[in-house]
Specification:
Elements: E1 3-7, H1 18-21, H2 29-49, E2 55-59, E3 78-81, E4 100-106, E5 124-129, E6 132-133, H3 136-146, E7 151-157, H4 158-167, E8 172-181, E9 184-187, H5 190-206, E10 220-226, H6 229-235, E11 242-245, E12 248-253, H7 256-270
Parallel strand pairs: 1-2, 1-4, 2-3, 4-7, 7-8
Antiparallel strand pairs: 5-6, 5-10, 8-9, 10-12, 11-12
Helix pairs in contact: 2-5, 6-7
The structure holds zinc ion.
Zinc ion (ZN) binds at residues 8-10, 61-62.
Length: 277
């Protein structure tokens, strides 16, 4: 049973501010990247307890080289994907040889009253596919689903865990913290979170037989409400995007990988938008 892990950071136990997740921060980030790494190591340990074969870990946060590699197990069945940009971003390395996927350190979608809530970029206020509001977990799960790969574990804050397990009731959810607001949390300690993640991962491997791929059925329509008018101005520059409002754009696709590629490109080009001072 080959496993793919997409690991983000904002949903790590204890994380309550951007500084803790910002690689340019020299005070808090070095501590919190260690917590992120330990949660990924706990997921790997639980997967191994549950009989996982090869494991690919895709570092999926910010510039995507956060994991402290020497803290991961000495395991020749384990590969780690680091750095950015990557064509498939948070889902780089998900290939047909993967049987099952885990999402760790995930956070709530843009607009939710939850810790550091956003969807790929703070320029995206809300993102929907076929009318369903999407978190990063749903967007990414649907790519896995297009390869027939189910997601069986999601760890992060309670908001994303509850939303994801509602959409994918076969998945194990491990909520390591509750949001008090955007930048305040009530959290497990890092050690307690790792223990919960390890046992959640072990249980997730037992659920693989009942799990199903999460898919959106074509025809597919992506709609994005951006944070500012200027972000929609930039996304509209890309062929295939239609402007449907001051802060909204639409893209249609016949297959899901194309839709996600367009979305990933939109997040990158929106970052070029800066209000003229
Ligand atoms: Zn992140």
């Amino acid at each position: 049973m080959n496993l793919y892990i997409s690991c983000d950071m904002e949903g790590t136990a204890g994380v309550c501010s951007w500084k803790q997740c910002d690689p340019s921060d020299t005070h808090e980030y070095p501590v919190f990247r260690r917590y992120m790494t330990r949660e990924v190591a706990a997921a790997i340990a639980g997967a191994r307890d549950g009989g996982a074969g090869s494991i690919v870990v895709n570092d999926s946060h910010w510039s995507m080289h956060n994991l402290l590699l020497e803290e991961l197990p000495d395991d020749d069945g384990l590969r780690v994907i680091s750095g950015a940009p990557k064509p498939w971003s948070m889902m780089q390395g998900l290939e047909a040889t993967v049987d099952v996927a885990f999402f760790t350190g995930y956070h709530a979608k843009g607009g939710d009253c939850a810790t550091l809530s956003h969807t790929y970029s703070e320029a995206m206020y809300s993102v929907s596919v076929n009318g369903t509001p999407c978190s990063e977990a749903l967007l990414n799960a649907a790519l896995a689903g297009s390869y027939g790969v189910p997601v069986v574990l999601v760890t992060g804050d309670r908001t994303i865990v509850e939303e994801t397990t509602r959409a994918m009731p076969w998945a194990v959810g491990v909520a390591v913290k509750n949001a008090i607001g955007f930048s305040a949390v009530n959290s497990l300690t890092p050690a307690a979170a790792c223990e919960a993640i390890r046992s959640g991962a072990r249980e997730a491997m037992r659920r693989v037989e009942q799990a199903r791929p999460f898919v959106f059925e074509p025809p597919l329509e992506l709609t994005i409400e951006t944070a500012g008018v200027e972000h929609a101005d930039f996304i509209e520059l890309m062929p295939g995007f239609q402007r449907i409002g001051g802060r909204s754009v639409r893209f249609t696709a016949s297959d899901y990988p194309l839709l996600l590629q367009a979305f990933i490109a939109a997040t990158r080009i929106a970052a070029a938008a800066n209000p003229i001072a």
